[in-house]
Amino acid sequence: MLLRTKRASSIVLAALLAVSLVGCGNSDNANNGSAAAKSSDPAWEEAMTTPFGKYPETVSYTVGQMATNYSTLSGTPYEKDNATNNVWTRYFKEKLNVQNMTKFEANDGTDYSQKVSMAIVSGDIPDIMVVPDYSTLQQLYDNDLIADLTDAYDKTASDRIKEIYDSYGGRVLDSAKFDGKLMAIPTTEISHGPGILWLRKDWMDKLGLQEPKSLEDVENIIEQFIEKDPGGNGSGKTVGLVVDNENVAGISGGQYSLNNIFALYGAYPKQWMDDGNGNAVYGSIQPEMKPALTKIAEMYKKGLIDRQFAVRTGDDRKALLTGGKSGAFLDNWWGSWTVADTLKLNPDAEWISYVAPQSEDGSLTMFTGNPSSSYLVVRKGFEHPELAMKMVSLQYDYQRYQEKEADTLKAFEDYSNLNVSGSPIIVNIDYYDAFYRNVDIMKEALESGDTSKLISNNDITAYNSYKKYMDSEKTGEKPDAVSWAGYTSSITTASMVKNANIKEVNPVFFGTTPSMSLKWPTLSKMELEMYLKIITGDQSPDSFDKFVDSWKKTGGDTITKEVNEAIASN
């Protein structure tokens, strides 16, 4: 609901903008002359029209930055680093000859969003900043505060950056276009992949159980876990499938979520879907939901779903798994990190991942997530609007894939190991299928020991961790939790997903509408209560029909109308 809560504040901001715009409306004229003169100079022209061209003179820019904890660098060669002088800013200065000046700085999340809002209200926004949601981007465009980056993208986005955006089939770039103009550099949210079933393989082996495919297979395995107690918990003390009580389904990549079971019935909770006739409809009120809920309620009644799931906390859920009280949960390809602590508590435990439950044809259907949730914008009138695109090309292409200087790479690796960012622009630009895109190349390198074909500099760090896990397997030593979790998610599970029969459906709307700020909290509460009451048997599945009627009357129909109008307007 984060995007929706931000919507309320943006409505207030819009009313204040008219006053502040008077003072910043002439910024274009101040720079046109110098920009025109520079464009006739070959050195400046190359810098302004190529991804990695270096400016002949230092270009300074103001930026809204997310705060970095530089205190963790104490006692290292980098202990004097700060927001304007660190590994990243020195890299930008060396390669592009640019220098940041901090306009404002705030912690990621609410603090940063508030700083962005204050800058917009004052009409004094930085030359470059990340805005946290689409509604803020819309507001900046409507008030003519940001630069058109269409030309900058065409000329200064590297070929690889363009290839990355192309991997989303146009969905990401289109989200930042208004009237055909690219008004921001959108971040990318890589595919979370399908929901993954994680099971205790050592329990399965003890009971002679085969790998699951259908929902019936999954039910049988969980039933055997509970009845035959391979974990030695004692009669009746082994818990069924661990499920989230706040996000039962509907979150892309949702941890402890039942998306896979709903998808078997063609149901996609919480998603705005195309009804087949070009209209957006809310997935949670569609008729396919009822049989899915009926099945899940049956599983709960049999004890196949944790009977106490409605009152569990996040810590409770994790403890059930790492402590050996449950041997089944649905997560994502990175689910190994969820249960990594199991190896510390019980070194003999073995978790394994499956693409399940599958449909009769062996496929698994998933809904895709929001391909872009934040945006990098440039102040209208800034003399070098291409700079933001050049920085993205340098950071997410050159440094990641092409930089070969050992000392430079060592510095970035040191920062990474210390969990320090330092970049003036904290976004993410990566391939849609990033988590399994190069898995075969990594597997080949691990088998041969030849790392020459690894694609990115990040791959080398990952290789060393995975190799550590493989070496421990060969020697019979107990693997450490970190190397096991990394290998299991990024090699074992990524390979499995890459070769699986995955079908994707794309929701058609991820934004907000005017009525959502007031009505969505109530509608969301109604929806959650419906899930919990039907699944736990407090109400029959027939109560779903009453929920649908109430949802529509309580504002759902109004919001649905607004969603379709928003789609049509774009």
Topology (elements, then pairings):
Elements lengths: L1 H20 L5 H13 L2 H8 L9 E8 L20 H10 L1 E9 L3 H13 L5 E4 L2 H9 L7 H7 L2 H8 L4 H4 L2 E2 L2 E2 L2 E2 L9 E5 H7 L7 H14 L30 H6 L7 E3 L5 E3 L6 H13 L12 H9 L5 E4 L3 H4 L3 H4 L5 E4 L8 E5 L7 E4 L7 H17 L3 H12 L16 H4 L1 H10 L8 H19 L5 H18 L2 E5 L10 H20 L7 H27 L1
Parallel strand pairs: 1-2, 1-3, 12-14
Antiparallel strand pairs: 3-13, 4-5, 6-13, 7-10, 7-11, 8-9
Helix pairs in contact: 1-5, 1-6, 1-23, 7-17, 20-22, 21-22, 23-24
Keywords: Signal
InterPro entries: Bact_solute-bd_prot1
Organism: Paenibacillus motobuensis
Comma- or semicolon-separated keywords:
570 residues; alpha/beta; D-Maltodextrin-Binding Protein, domain 2; 3 domains; five-stranded mixed β-sheet; three-stranded antiparallel β-sheet; 24 helices; 48% helix; disordered N terminus; signal; ABC transporter substrate-binding protein; Bact_solute-bd_prot1
CATH superfamily heading of the largest domain = Periplasmic binding protein-like II
The main pleated sheet reads as: 5 strands, mixed
Strand segment tally: 14
* First-to-last CA distance: 22 Å
**What is the CATH class designation of the largest domain?**
Alpha Beta
Output mean pLDDT. 92
Secondary structure class reads alpha/beta
**Overall 3D form:** globular
How would you write the strand order of the largest sheet? 2-1-3-13-6
Descriptive notes:
Keywords: Signal. Residues 1-30 form the signal peptide. This is ABC transporter substrate-binding protein. InterPro entries: Bact_solute-bd_prot1 (IPR050490). Helix content is 48%, strand content 11%. It has 3 domains: 49-190 and 372-417, Periplasmic binding protein-like II (D-Maltodextrin-Binding Protein, domain 2), CATH 3.40.190.10; 196-367 and 507-564, Periplasmic binding protein-like II (D-Maltodextrin-Binding Protein, domain 2), CATH 3.40.190.10; 435-500, no CATH class. The chain has helices spanning 2-21, 27-39, 42-49, 87-96, 110-122, 134-142, 150-156, 159-166, 171-174, 201-207, 215-228, 259-264, 289-301, 314-322, 335-338, 342-345, 386-402, 406-417, 434-437, 439-448, 457-475, 481-498, 516-535, 543-569, and strands at 59-66, 98-106, 128-131, 177-178, 181-182, 185-186, 196-200, 272-274, 280-282, 328-331, 351-354, 363-367, 375-378, 501-505. By secondary structure, the protein is an alpha/beta fold. The strands form 5 sheets. Strands 2-1-3-13-6 form a 5-stranded mixed β-sheet. The longest helix has 27 residues, at 543-569. The model is unreliable at 1-33 (pLDDT under 50). The protein is globular and about 80 Å long. The two termini are 22 Å apart.
